[in-house]
Specification:
Layout (H helix, E strand, L loop, with lengths): L1 H8 L8 H8 L9 E5 L5 H10 L2 E6 L2 H13 L6 E5 L12 E7 L8 H11 E14 L6 H10 L8 H10 L3 E7 L1 H16 L3 H8 L1 H20 L2 E9 L2
Parallel strand pairs: 1-2, 1-4, 2-3, 4-5
Antiparallel strand pairs: 5-7, 6-7
């Protein structure tokens, strides 16, 4: 899975868009010297970019220990070990002090968390007054899951806990956030996903087979085809969220 995602989404990234998507999430924020926690830091590509391009001091929190080790190697190779602190953590409340952070950042990781209300309350706890929550996430449409959506879940083989776009504004308000902004980015990702699928069927096909084997390659190509279906039906959606702690 890691080899596949990096091949499609770029070295160090486990969700789409690469550095440009990170820049969109933090657009307008001055992160120079600010303390940012990256929730679900994965392979560290986001953290390297936040530190190198935006001047942030970054704490990366990740529940999968093997990913932390790989990310630490990436950060060390980038010469950023003094700016990026990657930590293995257990699911649940963050092991961070109250009001200790300037920014909580998350890129497409809350899809794996069922109790998002509790998560948002914890994010507010660790933010200093005036601090920002900025994130993107995978979301769902308003209706029940279709057979196409269930098939995509089967192809993914992961546990997902998705909410519709309008859930986020209400949940963040209930958690005590203000200046809440929720933006539907589904149209953007539909175009990108179609391009990814075309690459997998064409220019990337042989490279995928060499890295993954033909059988696994074919599984992921079908996985992406199934994802384009639910994206175009509006059952799978993407969005960006921003909110401020008063």
């Amino acid at each position: 899975m890691l080899d596949m995602l990096e091949l499609v989404w770029g070295a160090g990234f486990l969700s789409p868009g690469g550095p440009a998507a990170v820049d969109e999430i933090v657009d307008g924020l001055d992160l120079a010297g600010k303390l940012v926690v990256d929730i679900g830091s994965g392979l560290g590509g986001v953290d390297v970019h936040l530190a190198r391009q935006h001047g942030a001091r970054v704490i990366g929190m990740e529940i999968a220990a093997p990913l932390v080790a790989l990310a630490q190697a990436r950060v060390a190779a980038a010469g950023l070990s003094d700016r990026v602190d990657l930590r293995h953590c257990a699911p649940g409340p963050l092991a961070l002090d109250d009001a200790s952070l300037d920014v909580v950042f998350s890129k497409d990781s809350l899809i794996h968390v069922a109790d998002k209300d509790a998560v948002f309350r914890d994010y507010r706890r660790v933010l200093a007054p005036g601090g920002w929550l900025v994130m993107s996430d995978w979301m769902r449409g308003p209706g029940p899951y279709s057979k196409d959506m269930e098939y995509w879940f089967e192809m993914e083989g992961l546990s997902y806990h998705m909410q519709p776009l309008d859930f986020y504004a209400g949940a963040l308000e209930a958690a005590g956030f203000a200046e809440i902004e929720v933006v539907d980015t589904s149209a953007e990702y539909r175009v990108l996903c179609d391009a990814e699928y075309a690459q997998m069927k064409g220019p990337l096909r042989d490279r995928m087979a060499a890295i993954l084997g033909a059988e696994t390659r074919d599984h992921f190509v079908e996985n992406w085809r199934a994802m384009t279906v639910v994206l175009h039906k509006g059952e799978l959606r993407t969005g960006r969220v921003r909110a401020r702690k008063p």
